[in-house]
Amino acid sequence: MEHRIAVLKGDGIGPEIIDEALKCLGVVAEEFGHSFIYDEQLIGGAAIDALEIPLPSETVDACLASDAVLMGAVGGPQWDTLPPSVRPEQGLLGIRKALGVYANIRPAKLYAPLADACPLKPERLQGGLDLIVCRELTGDVYFGEKRRDADGAGHDDMTYTIPEIERIAHRAYGLAKQRRNHVTCVDKSNILETSRVWRETVERVAREYPDIETDYLYVDNAAMQLVLRPSQFDVILTGNLFGDILSDEASCITGSIGMLPSASLGETSLGLYEPIHGSAPDIAGQNKANPIATILSAALMLRYSFGLFAEANAVENAVDAVLKEGYRTADIAKPDESVLTCSEMGSVIASHI
Ligand code: IPM
Ligand code: MG
Q: Which residues of the chain have pLDDT under 70?
């Protein structure tokens, strides 16, 4: 079957890691008899350099006309001094909003062969780490009104509507049902009004899922629990800002931020797939980056947007096998271990599919 994929390589290591994901998709196409049609478009700093805006309308149109969007990363120091509305990050927020992908699913799993790369003591890893951060992606303080007063004070409006919370909560319960039947709602309802609405709404939605256990944590406690006893989490249901922070924390427990993929979904099968990490300008263009998060994001695309379950499993199993066989990029290697380049890692994974 034919699948149209909008490809947004973006900035920094974006082009390198996307090329490795495309290499793996090429093998999937060949082995399983699919045809992937790529439509490459500009976003972020690359779009600013070419067209002076972070999200050209051609990019939005191409994404909307595709079956899925595969993205690298955006941003870099050369664009840090631009006014906020034309920074590369606005391209990313803009495409998330334009696609209506309100549910950001970030699975964090510790691969046994990478236990050494995990900064936690081994006893803290009893029970393992296999959780999903289910992060609301198109609301919260990210999208509220921003302004600065004459005296220099800054404001960011934080708003959550009940329907916004309900739809992400249903997503989290749907995920938990297919996993270990446990949702942890994370908020700051001892302080924030948005969080009080969040928690009351989640409590209501929870009643529709009597077989699923729900517990409630304040975000500060959740951040601590993640490093004290990560095995207690199955699905973490949280807002945009808290989810951003907790997913970076969860990723480092897996050994490296270079390991975590993400899927951003809305009401249709058109999803946006990207690694959770940034554009890593310090190593850009050096063929050093870890492409695994992006390759795993492509696997999520196969599963969630195309319904290609065997194909998604084949990619994930290839990553598993490669790690078991001891292949490492620099970020997940021990000091004395030999390391693969980004393109070598991509090739090794591709050859295992
Ligand atoms: C992420 C990133 C983005 C976010 C930035 C680059 C806008 O940190 O996807 O986690 O904050 O959502
Ligand atoms: Mg982030």
A: none
The pLDDT, as a whole number, for residue 139 is 98
Number of folded domains in the chain?
2
pLDDT of residue 277: 96
Ligand 2 (ion): residues with CB under 5 Å are 244
| Separation between Cα atoms, residue 72 and residue 56, nearest integer Å | 17
pLDDT value of residue 84: 87
In a domain, residue 112? The reply is no
| 229 inside domain | yes
| Cα–Cα–Cα angle for 309, 313, 316, rounded to 5 degrees | 140
Structure tokens at 328: 């490492």
Q: Are strands 261-265 and 271-275 parallel, antiparallel or unpaired?
A: antiparallel
226 with 141, same domain: the answer is: yes
Looking at residue 188, which CATH number applies to its domain? Answer: 3.40.718.10
Statement: the pTM of the whole predicted model exceeds 0.90? yes
Task: Judge contact between 306 and 3, C-beta under 8 A.
Answer: yes
For residue 13, which of 348, 286, 243 has the smallest C-alpha distance? 286
pLDDT at 325: 97
Tell me how far the alpha carbon of residue 73 lies from the centroid of ligand 1, in angstroms: 9
Strands 182-187 vs 154-156: parallel, antiparallel or unpaired: unpaired
- Give the distance (Å) from ligand 1 centre to CA of residue 44: 12
For atom 5 of ligand 1, which residue has the closest CA? 89
Please provide the distance, in angstroms rounded to a whole number, between the alpha carbons at the two ends of the chain.
19
Determine contact, residues 168/136, Cβ cutoff 8 Å.
yes
Listed in sequence order, the residues at least 6 apart from 12 whose beta carbon sits closer than 8 Å to its beta carbon are: 72, 73, 75, 76, 278, 279, 280, 281, 284
